[in-house]
Amino acid sequence: MDTEQNGENEVIRMVDDKVLYLFSSSHRRIYKQDNMNVLCYPPGFIMHFRYDRKWIGNEITRKKPDDFIDNEAIIVIVDIEKSDKKYFPRFYPVRKAKIKKVDMAGSALHIYFELLPDWVVYENNTKLKDYQSCINSLREKPIEGIGRLEGKFVSFEELSPDIKFSPRTKAWESIIRKIGNLEPYKKTLFYKLDKFCEVKSNKDLKITKFDDIKCGYILESGKRYNLELSFDYGKEPPTEADKEKLIVKVEEENFYTPIPNKIALSFRVDKQSIYLSTKERFFDGLTYLIITFEKELIEGPNVVIPIRVKYNRLRIWGSFLIFFIGLILTSGVIQIYQVPQYALKLLGSFISTSVMFWLYREIK
User: Fold this and answer.
1) One domain for residues 227 and 121
2) Is 69 helix (H, G, I), strand (E, B) or coil?
3) I need a labelling partner for 86 at 20 to 30 A (CA). Which of 60, 205, 258, 317 fits?
């Protein structure tokens, strides 16, 4: 892999071995939602695509699923142009990913991939402006058909050195300007999660894996966090945007009301900070951060992020320690011969309190 400097953007060229091409159509609502989510979720997040056997490239069927683990992949959005009854594909590679798990279940191939920070660069790319000819040069890809596209929607081939990548927001914006003007996305607000940090330290939170495919963030109870978002329609906002709002949902058991919990969407391009404050907890808990549209007058990413809220062990057990020290101090002066007696009482109190605390956590 080579890198070069293009102004203030770091551009990455992939010139290594073969990669998986993961094609995702804009023709059906479920796949269109996947496309919007791919352009939204932060690096490290794991997503899942499903392909029927007939759409799988021949070289992939000849290999074992585990052969693709840790292989890099390119996510390609596929738009459709219609002429009479014929459907013609238009290709828009958008993002790099890394394969984490591949399963063949029945007649379907399930691919789990980790999103990487590298966006395909469209702006100032004079060598190849739209990548259409680049994808057309692949042996296996979606091809024209009658009433639907034919060909293969997942293939394993070498990546053209003409495709450039960059982790910069400007690269993401260049993608949105391309995708946002396509017919299926005329009423779409694109946004991405730029940063999630603890307010006091301003330290970025990292995506943590909860199991093989589930991942999210770990937050501590009793702290304040900042989630930063970038918004872009890629064009002028649709007329419906004036009546629409973005809603931030959290569980009241774990969080105070987000600030703000509703965001007006009449702008064209914007950045927004959302402040989340966790409540004090006496046990660890799994919850979810959900960002959705209030009236669904326009479309956009469907964000559901798992969050594990950890109780503050130092604060909780420190409180118990202070309680026991106070118990000793309020008992008056202890004579030497009374030490074993008080130690026994203290131990009994500690054991009973700990058992009650453990039972409370188990019941919850």
Assistant:
1) no
2) coil
3) 60
CB-CB contact of 302 with 292 (8 Å): yes
Residues 6+ apart with CB under 8 A from 205: 196, 197, 198, 217, 218, 219, 225
Q: Please give the Cα distance from 341 to 26 (Å, whole number).
A: 75
CA-derived radius of gyration, the chain: 26
Segment holding 277, helix H or strand E: strand 269-277
* Residues 105, 203 within the same domain: no
Instruction: Report how many domains make up the chain.
Output: 3
Contact (CB, 8 A) for 71 and 20 = yes
Residue 41 lies in domain: 2-185
Q: Which two tokens stand for residue 158?
A: 């070498």
- Residue 96: φ, ψ to 5°: -95, 150
The pTM (predicted TM-score) of the whole model is: 0.82
pLDDT per position as a tens digit, 257-316: 999 999 999 888 899 999 999 998 778 889 999 999 999 999 999 999 999 999 865 555
Q: Nearest CA to 289 among 325, 319, 247?
A: 247
